[in-house]
Specification:
Elements: H1 48-57, E1 79-81, E2 87-90, H2 93-96, H3 105-108, H4 114-121, H5 134-142, E3 152-156, H6 159-179, H7 186-191, E4 204-208, H8 217-221, E5 240-241, H9 254-275, E6 282-287, E7 290-291, E8 297-298, H10 301-313, E9 317-321, E10 347-350, E11 357-361, H11 381-396, H12 399-420, E12 425-431, E13 434-439, H13 442-454, E14 457-458, E15 460-462, E16 466-469, H14 477-492
Parallel strand pairs: 2-14, 4-5, 4-6, 6-9, 9-10
Antiparallel strand pairs: 1-2, 3-11, 7-8, 10-11, 12-13, 13-16, 15-16
Helix pairs in contact: 5-11, 9-10, 12-14
Length: 494
């Protein structure tokens, strides 16, 4: 276990980062009854049981990425319990994919009815044999959470396949415009079967340095966060442009950051304008509201508004990838709602906290022929039963309000620690509880995360040196203060 340096006095959490009447939510108890009151550590992580299970798994599967094995019977609320009995405050939540905590009663009871159980057991090929209530389920669940202005939805299995099919819609729109409404020619139908033009056109999607959009081929071509994701994989040579890199604090660097927005918007427009002359027209742009995997890089309202205007100017598709930001962690259901866009994006993809993958889009992007956006499952109606319970819980418990209030405490606490440990921390940023802070080096970040875990806090890293925080929507002010105190303890011992 980590020990504090003897010459450093232990400082209790400052009032500026403690729960105040102005910021506190009306909820004074945990949203999940019975969750631990704080972390309890019995041994190092990974402990002996985790190490033994990993050795067994390694005999049949190469998965060296495993951090530890969890006990999901004992994990509860904001706390994940590993197989060695360590109870850790989880601020990473399965890479941001646990919406309302572990073993939430609303989810445990979601399949209590015989009809719900039959949905789970009789999983349909939704594109050909949907159940009688499928259209109503999509309206009641998926469209109840839809981004404003988008009334078309197709469910998918994960974020990668959601983006892959969104790219198809981009390309379909572009080719339909070129054809001016005519049907496919015999040459197009024959040539596409051997991946040749004209049936297989040379088209592209513009993405950004630092972005992450998935690990299947087209989405991987748009991913630029870590080399290990891409190396040795043949990929299309699609264009990539710069995503803004701001100077912090934002309020002290307004002019420099406006110049950065202008620079990045000019680069994006140049790539789009020249793509036809380069023989590979750009049919759309994919961008994350916050570049999560790549380092929690934020963009301003001006950046996202400008990008939308460029897409309109060149009549290409504007896709916002909300796989990690969607579902409420920024304090709104969709992060792009913060950006004051002129109108809705053309496509929004989702997964993680939404429990099912999929894409919302505008009606004009509907494919005109069947089988073009299709796979065996096209989602899973069982996931909609769970999502329905999640959405009702978010509304009933005002979890978006809780996320905003707790996020204020979390962000102010991080800023306070940055001001007191500037040699270790910089660039505090966040929306809601979707927060991050940079360490001075990647090695320091890794050390801080390891020591946090030894103290019972499980957090994540991203980019070169960022600590990223991805708690569930039931993460409350006192949870934030537990984390801040543990982080302070770690920094004092550096």
């Amino acid at each position: 276990m980590m020990k504090l340096r003897g010459d450093m006095p232990k400082i209790q959490r400052l009032l500026s980062t403690a729960t105040s009447p102005a910021k506190a939510t009306s909820q004074s108890k945990p949203y999940v009854v019975g969750e631990p009151s704080g972390p309890t550590m019995k041994c190092e992580v990974p402990g002996p049981q985790s190490k033994s299970l990993l050795a067994d798994l390694s005999k049949i599967q190469s998965m060296d990425s495993v951090h530890f094995f969890a006990d999901y019977d004992k994990s509860l609320g904001n706390y994940i319990v590993d197989v060695d009995g360590n109870e850790m405050l989880d601020m990473f939540t399965q890479i941001s994919s646990v919406p309302i905590g572990y073993n939430h009663p609303a989810l445990l009871s979601a399949f209590d009815s015989p009809s719900a159980m039959r949905v789970l057991v009789n999983r349909p090929a939704l594109g050909v044999y949907p159940g009688a209530d499928w259209a109503q389920k999509l309206r009641d669940v998926m469209l109840s959470a839809a981004p404003p202005g988008l009334d078309q939805v197709t469910t998918m299995m994960c974020g990668s396949c959601s983006n892959e099919n969104a790219f198809k819609l981009m390309h379909f729109k572009y080719m339909e415009k070129l054809r001016e409404g005519r049907t496919f020619t015999a040459e197009e139908m024959e040539s596409c079967m051997i991946n040749q033009a004209p049936g297989t056109p040379n088209l592209s999607v513009l993405s950004f340095h630092g972005g992450f959009h998935g690990r299947t081929i087209a989405s991987l071509a748009c991913t630029h966060s870590k080399y290990i994701h891409k190396i040795d994989v043949p990929l299309p040579n699609w264009p990539v442009s710069d995503f803004p890199r701001y100077k912090y604090p934002l309020e002290e660097n307004i002019r420099e950051n406006e110049e950065e927005d202008n620079r990045c918007l000019a680069l994006a427009e140049e790539a789009i304008a020249n793509s036809g002359n380069n023989g590979c027209p750009i049919t759309g742009v994919i961008v994350e509201p916050i570049q999560a995997e790549g380092g929690d890089h934020h963009g301003s309202n001006k950046w996202f508004q400008g990008l939308q205007q460029i897409c309109k100017k060149y009549d290409i598709v504007y896709l916002i990838d909300e796989v990690q930001t969607g579902g409420g962690p920024t304090g709104k259901m969709w992060c792009h709602e913060w950006f004051d866009l002129e109108d809705s994006p053309d496509i929004v993809t989702f997964s993680k906290k939404m429990l099912t993958g999929g894409l919302y889009h505008k009606p004009e992007l509907r494919p005109k022929q069947p089988w073009r956006i299709f796979n065996t499952w096209v989602g899973d109606p069982g996931k909609l039963i769970l999502l329905d319970a999640v959405l009702k819980t978010i509304k009933k418990d005002d979890l978006l309000g809780n996320t905003l209030a707790t996020g204020d405490i979390l962000l102010s606490g991080l800023k306070d620690l940055e001001s007191r440990f500037p040699q270790y921390l910089k660039n505090t940023r966040g929306r809601g509880t979707f927060c991050a802070i940079d360490c001075d080096t990647g090695a320091r970040r890794d050390d801080v995360l390891a020591k946090l875990r030894s103290l019972g806090v499980h957090a994540g890293g991203c980019g070169e040196a960022a600590i990223r925080l991805r708690p569930a929507l039931i993460f409350q002010p006192w949870h934030a203060n537990i984390f801040l105190q543990k982080l302070e303890d770690v920094l004092m011992a550096q």
